[in-house]
Amino acid sequence: MNFKIHRGTQEIGGSCVEVWTHATRIVIDIGMPLMHPDGSEFDISTFQPLTKENLLNKGVLPNIPGLYKSAKKPVDGVLISHYHKDHYGLGEYVSDNIKFYLGKATHQILEINNLFTSQNLELKNHQWFAHEKSFNIGDIQITPFLTDHSAFDAYAFLIEAPFGSAQGAKSKRIFYSGDFRGHGAKHKLFKWFTYHPPKHIDYLLMEGTTLGRKDTTQKTEEELGQELTGLFRQKDRINLVYCSGQNIDRIVRVYCACVQAGKTLVVDVYVAHILKVLSEHAGIPYPSKEFVNVRVMFPWALSDRLIKGGNENVVYQFTKYKITRDEIGKNPADYVLIVRPSLLRDLKKIRGMENGNFIYSLWKGYLNKPGSTKDFVEYFTNHGFTLHHLHTSGHADLPTLKRMVSAIKPKVLIPIHTLNGSDYKNHFDVQVRELSDGEIVN
Ligand SMILES: [Zn+2]
Ligand SMILES: [Zn+2]
User: Fold this and answer.
1) 226 and 209, same structural domain?
2) What is the Å distance from ligand 1's center to 251 Cα?
3) pTM reported for the whole predicted model
4) Structural domain harbouring 238
5) Dist. CA 417 → ligand 2 center (Å)
6) Mean pLDDT within 418-423
7) Ligand 2 centroid vs 185 CA: distance in angstroms?
């Protein structure tokens, strides 16, 4: 078995790993980079024309023969670890006849993105996998492990392939951590994993997103929930929470805090749809008879687009739970709204939209860069809102990374999804091998 990290040895985002034997070739993640080499936010539209050839020549698409168009020897499969763009974002360039392997909820989120955004990634050929259910692609065996991450349906992968040509020859084992943490809603799953880790791992490819950041430990989602409850209990204040509509752990925490503080949660039709679709997988609150304190806002432009696109059923499924701007305006302090910049036009029209709490629940880094995030937040601070930064990372802190390494005890640890690969040898008590993008390991 051989492997190569195409992108991610010295970068957070754009993850892509190729693994192959003499018979089979697979790709793990086909992520969009998050940043340009100069540190500015990655924008694929700067690489015109957006053809496969041009993107390959410019190094945006990893150079993997047989991945992008029908080839004599196409890649045998693409694994997607989770629904964050830095792990699947270049998927639309993959040839239609190559099969994608992913979790069901991940697939559902990709389809929701097709519906609500300009994304157009239809998987013509796909297979769902499930936690700890091994499957084969050619002579490579894959076992997915559900992980604790800010994406709801995220997996690590155990990859095994025969070593040598003889049948029954011993296998080599790679463990790809994907993105993970140990302080979210699935923290018990992480703990369980550390007690029952896969054994005899030759190479552990482990993310290190938080290495080099100042805060070496992360607060738990539970602690964050308590802080939210404290804020929501203040009387006479409307609360706006700016978080990712796909961060289910966070939205569930906001919902629980609403229940404890006696407030009604208001989400827009996009977040409502995500919650409803994913509620098939877990006890997630969504606008329904069971969760009467979740109400739905219908931003005009979004509703209009959905209806014109023939998706009125998505809009109308929530009409029973609609809340109007007037209703919110009458008693603003009764409500907690999940917000994002594209809702500003509608939010401005609500009476009493002043002197509330604005809870910024994303990575702080986005606040310092000029752009829609900063403008959005400033609009509210200019209208008397108090800004609170309540967030915890989607990624493992140092103690959690250490627990992962000491559970797996790999022969070799390889940094990926990190800006601080050179730090690994200072933190982890195993052999560390720092690779460069494109370097082959046999
Ligand atoms: Zn992620
Ligand atoms: Zn990532």
Assistant:
1) no
2) 17
3) 0.95
4) 221-389
5) 7
6) 96
7) 18
